[in-house]
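Chain and conformation:
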Amino acid sequence: MLAALFATLVCASARAAIIYTSDEGKERHLYSVEPGGTPVQLTKKDSSDLLRVYDMFPAVSADGTRLAYASYRVYTDEGLRLWKQWNGKAAYPNEEFYLFFYSYFPSRTYFTRHKSLNWNVFMMDLKTGKERKISNFLWDEYEPQFMSRGTDIIYVLTAETSAFVLRGSKSGKSFKQIVLKNNQAIHPQISPDGRKLLYQSYQTGNWDLFTMAMADLPSGRIETRLTATSNVSELFPRWSPDGKSIYYLADGQSSRFYDIYLMDIETKEKKQLTNRERVGADIIMSPGGDKLAFTADQGRGRALFVVNKDGTGKKKLTATTESAYFPAWSPDGKRLAFLSDAAGQTTGPKTKKKVQLYVVNVDGTGRAVAVKKPVYLSPIVWY
């Protein structure tokens, strides 16, 4: 039955499917849905001992057959329970006993462990539904990205130094580790041809943008500085689909506003696309490279906008009173998926905004709810 579901999913993916994170309290799983269709749950509990699981940051390979994501999981610790001679009685006279990251109480009510004690990167075969852990370090590993060619991925590893790790997703054995000094490089982005790494760096005492040739890694690194504007932070860089330009956020002379800029990689010529906006980090260019979608703080809410690559034709797609996040383009560039709290408040002792997944045409028409159940405020992907 599971294989049949995933076979159906693969067929549906040719018509474009959206992968999102559900909001189920202690469980946040990845689901796939074709607009107008029925959601299919992708990630599931891998053990009856699993108490808490967060699956987020989905990324899909270019051929649509593999899914990479970050996962944080908490399990009951059977090993510690046995070691403590589980019998309902205190094993030690003192009220509390600590042993390497584990906490023991005589009441025997606290026996949990964090699997690997951190976020890890997992890979799933969308044809079979089989998943496996592909990261091996005892630090947080997240934000996976597939290379444009082959099956390698790059992801962020947070340790004492900023690091990016590239490894083969098939064998899971080979990897290259790219380590720079503390806080020198974050938010890496691989170029469409897989030859350059783009990132923001604070190594000059100011947030600037740099590129690095992947062929130079892990040794012989030569960085190319793209921005050098005093007292201006350039952040969250992204590649255009053709790899000839990048777009990013900059705060001008005031940290109250963050606007979108577009830069030609060869000439370093840049163009400001928005004027005194409060743009969020979730900007994304259309597959054809002709439009940008972004969200911006409008005071009462966070609106979703679309603008042409040259800064003209800006159009607001959402209402003033709602907040939209994480837009994702359909593969044909005609629609956008996004998360919004337009559904209002949920009820209960802990009241919060109800977030749902929506789709809308680029001209603002045809808006519809893609998933009726609440989703978690986390990046989505439409492939």
